[in-house]
Each structure stands twice: as structure tokens, then as C-alpha cells.
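Hi V.,

You were right to ask for the full record rather than a summary. Here it is.
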Amino acid sequence: GSHLDADGWFATGDVGRMEPDGRLVLIDRIKDVFKRDNLLVSPGAIEKRLRAHPAVAECVVVDYPDKFAGAVAAAFVVPEPGFEDRQIDEIV
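Predicted structure:
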């Protein structure tokens, strides 16, 4: 039998996206994602974006059940010294 899905992709268990120039960018492992409104969400990818901000010292993103969306993300953020909670709220 074929290991390709209906669209011709090999099922590796990875999550990626196609760039406009045709490159495939791998984002995360599928086991590390959750579904929100039938879309796969990667907590690791969200954490990476948050950590890139100068106000963020550390963070973790988790999912929790939501009766309408299936699951939603929650970010727990430790700000860098000198940054205020409102500045963190603006980026989250």
C-alpha cells in the first residue's frame, strides 16, 4: 500500500507550511499540536514567537478544552525585568 495521503504527501508526523516561493518549512511534530476549530495549533511555534520579543524572559503555551473551539491556547509569560504586565498583554 501507499504511504502517501490523498494529496500526495508522505505522512511523517511533522507539521509544516508552504512558503510562497515553494519551500516547505517544518514547524513542529504533530504530537505536540492541538486542534482549534479544526486547525492544528503548535504551542512550540507560539512560544518561539513570544520568546523573540524583548519583553519576554520565558514562556510556556498550553492548550485547554473549549466547548466551542475544541481547545484554546493559554500563554504563561515571565517578563524581563523592567517590563510591565500591560506590555506583555499587548504582545499576547
